[in-house]
Amino acid sequence: MFVDNEAKPSRKRMRLVGKNSRKALKSLHTSGRRGAARTIHNLKKKNPNVKITRTLSYMAIHTRKDGSFLVPERMARINAIIEDDPSSIDLDLDNDPVAQVCGPDQYGRVLGMGVGVSKTSLIASGPAKEKLHQETQHCTMVEERVGTIEKHMITLTQILMEIKDQCTKSVVADTSTSSVREPANTQSCGHYSHGMQLCELLNMHREVVAKGRATKTNVFADMNVDSSLEIYNVQVSLVLSRSERLFGSKKTFGELNFPAKVKWPAIFTRFI
Fold this sequence. Notes:
By secondary structure, the chain is of the alpha+beta class. Helices cover about 45% and strands about 15% of the residues. It folds into 2 domains: about 1-115, no CATH class; about 190-270, no CATH class. It contains 8 helices and 6 strands. Strands 1, 2, 3, 4, 5 and 6 form a 6-stranded antiparallel beta sheet that branches. It is rod-shaped and about 115 Å long. This is Transposase.
């Protein structure tokens, strides 16, 4: 049955037409079983931030593994057009470099896009693809910015820890010096004779907003605020929250000129 069917004159004519058509081909593709769609997918995967146009896919599909071209003269003309006008690869299907060299597409096929892809379908899906490409680029930019901010935060944290260590060493040195001088200044200093200690200043949420030193026994009442509230005079050495407001003032820690002393409630002062 098969032999009889293939022996018919109509089938012989079809095979002859196919043979002549294959001989007339001027630009064979090199995608093999992968096809155009898989080649385009691999290009997008390799370069996610690059828009894969019809010109780029056509050149990839018609290039051998060693980088040579099946039809060098066509590729040379396409490359010449791109060199003269790099933006030409973004032109429509009737005016891009492939169309200028190979002519406009016909019969429901688009060169460089594979079988089953028509010009009508590409035009219809163009806006959605462009929007998706823009969203992908935006997400990539946001991820890069987040990564940059994280690196800056790590650097700032390291700097902050170094400043903290330096301040701690400085306060310890000052405390040692004041302890040595304490016997000579006992009568003149009164309740300051015990020296100053490291302390943390807390806000209403019990978060540390600044660090400094104060005399633990030097507690007083501020009549301008609340006579029943015990207050410390704190020598601020490190500010952790510049936007935090000072006690009894509209100013913030960020407005202080160092070295600076501030009044801070005893209930929100923690000695360390």
